[in-house]
């Protein structure tokens, strides 16, 4: 499984190093958020990697939802239950839950299908900033604090009409932002397609905190910095 290089199993617990998490974010998801840099003070393992690990272990269900409730630091031992009854909780040895997954319906353990869906979903997720989020913030004339950006991936859910899928892909169909004071709830609504056929739909939710009036010049600086980090990293490969 292609995820083997992005985690280790030590004493039946899953461990993700800072380097593994950072490579997954950058090379698989195209996510260059500094919070995934190995040297970041507030380093966090990408939520997409945790969900991908759950998919690879338990299979792809027709209906799935995932909620993230904590930031996983580097080398944090995680427990993935051996069995589940429609609920999967990824937690540490103290019982703290970091990822909660609900699933129902038929299940596929087709490794090729699961890898395709993981790669397509995390690539879609990696496009959230700046390609989807920035135009949405501009539309509502708000932005996060550029010196301390607080954009949290809270949850995602999707429902498939069938598991008879050959080449899944994700396409954005709508994006919304509900602003309440200094907090915004962003929803990215997407379709899952197999060729020209729509086989499912989903919704990803981000929480954007510390909202302030939109400044196009400042936001462009944030985007330019992001693109610079991306170009430098890709040139080093």
Distance separating the two termini: 22 Å
Order of strands across the main sheet:
4-5-3-7-10-9-8
**So what's the CATH class?**
Alpha Beta
Q: Helix-strand pattern, N to C?
A: EEHHEEEHHEEEEEEH
Largest sheet: 7 strands, antiparallel
Overall mean pLDDT stands at 95
Count of alpha/pi helices: 5
Number of domains: 1
Looking at how many chains there are and whether they match, the oligomeric state comes to single chain
> Which architecture name does CATH use?
Roll
Topology-level CATH name = Thiol Ester Dehydrase, Chain A
The percent range for helix content is 25-40%
Structural class: alpha+beta
Ranges with pLDDT <50 over ≥5 residues?
A: none
Give the overall shape: globular
The whole-angstrom Rg is: 18 Å
The counted number of beta strands is 11
Approximate strand percentage = 35-45%
Descriptive notes:
It is a single chain. The chain has a single domain, classed as Thiol Ester Dehydrase, Chain A, CATH 3.10.129. It is 31% helix and 36% strand. The strands form three sheets. The chain has a seven-stranded antiparallel beta sheet with strand order 4-5-3-7-10-9-8. The radius of gyration is 18 Å and the shape is globular. It is α+β, with helices and mostly antiparallel strands. It has helices spanning 18-28, 47-58, 111-126, 128-140, 216-236, and strands at 8-10, 13-15, 60-68, 87-91, 97-108, 142-143, 150-160, 168-180, 183-194, 197-209, 212-213.
């Amino acid at each position: 499984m292609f995820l083997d290089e992005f985690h280790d199993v030590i004493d039946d617990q899953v461990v993700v190093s800072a380097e593994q998490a950072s490579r997954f974010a950058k090379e698989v998801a195209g996510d260059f958020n500094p919070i995934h840099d190995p040297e970041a003070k507030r380093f966090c393992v990408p939520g997409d990697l945790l969900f991908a690990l759950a998919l690879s272990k338990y299979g792809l269900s027709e209906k799935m939802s995932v909620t993230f409730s904590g930031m996983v630091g580097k080398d944090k031992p995680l427990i993935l239950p051996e069995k589940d009854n429609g609920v999967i909780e990824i937690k540490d040895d103290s019982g703290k839950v970091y990822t909660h997954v609900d699933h129902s319906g038929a299940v596929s353990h087709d490794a090729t299908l699961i890898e395709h869906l993981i790669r397509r979903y995390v690539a879609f997720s990696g496009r959230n900033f700046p390609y989807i989020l920035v135009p949405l913030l501009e539309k509502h004339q708000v932005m996060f604090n550029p010196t301390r950006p607080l954009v949290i991936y809270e949850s995602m859910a999707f429902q498939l009409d069938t598991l008879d899928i050959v080449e899944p892909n994700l396409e954005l169909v709508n994006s919304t932002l509900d602003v309440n004071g200094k907090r915004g709830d962003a929803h990215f609504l997407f379709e899952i397609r197999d060729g020209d056929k729509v086989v499912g739909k989903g919704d990803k939710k981000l929480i954007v905190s510390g909202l302030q009036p939109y400044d196009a010049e400042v936001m462009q600086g944030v985007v330019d910095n992001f693109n610079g980090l991306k170009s430098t990293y890709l040139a080093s490969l």
